[in-house]
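Why do we bother with a discrete structure alphabet at all? Because it lets us treat a fold like text: something you can write down, compare, and reason about line by line. To make this less abstract, here is a complete entry for Metallo-beta-lactamase domain-containing protein. Read it the way you would read a sentence in a foreign language you are learning: slowly, and without expecting to understand everything at once.
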Amino acid sequence: MACWICATCGTQYKEASDPPSTCPICLDERQYVGHKGQVWTTLLEMQQQGYENIVEEEGPGLTAIYTAPKFPIGQRAILIRSPQGNVLWDCITFLNTATITKIKDLGGIAAIVISHPHYYTSMVEWAEAFQCPVMIHEQDQHHVVRPSKHIKPFQENEKLIIKGVTALRVGGHFTGSLVLHCKLEHLGKPFLCTGDTVMVVPDQNPQGWVSFMYSYPNLIPLPAQEVARMRDQLAAWDFDRIYGAFKGQQVESGGRDAVIRSADRYVGILNGSIKRRYF
Ligand SMILES: [Zn+2]
Ligand SMILES: [Zn+2]
């Protein structure tokens, strides 16, 4: 018996003697099955293959955790350290005792909040290791493939996780896609963690830029009105930095303006009010 892991999206399934026949997360058009077809692994096999997690300071009070070599989407989890308890934003598949020890030395995890199903990964392993809840939006809970008492779906569009840390359901990429708004005095200006609900893009000059997609690997955009709605929802919040899904992916300052400006560009190009030269 094993909890099989899809090697394309990193989702861990409930215990079974044989791997599932398919991965519904990858069959969805927001993901993909690779050219070699469906491939499965396990945490034990990953340990034997030499995977490890890098746990490093990301900024004041923030710790990034990601797997090396990259596996499979390559996102980072971010531990937001707070006197009220630490919150883990998003999750990664690989977990071993060295990672658990390092995070416990940082004060452990009071709650895990996950932006969307692509990062559900092995959330139940993490929840069991740290004996903490996993907060997801109930609009996406039908994507859970390893049920657990630790998973706590919520209905609200604004869910207070701990004092100063609020999960906002802004939708878009998935109906229940979340961002995490953090306003913690000891960490300076308010900031936003976005996963790929709001994607921090490579072009950050001279100002910050982000984007929004229904599918990132398959480059399927969101409708203009959906992006405008996300813009208006986020514009009601004050935030400076934006931490995206991947290492080094930050809007360094002016995050709220970056969201508004980027959404306006996106909507303008889709509806034709902004003209681009295509030659
Ligand atoms: Zn998959
Ligand atoms: Zn995604």
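What the structure line is telling us, in plain words: The chain has six helices and 19 strands. The pocket of zinc ion (ligand 1) is lined by residues 6, 8-9, 11, 23, 25-26 (CB under 6 Å).
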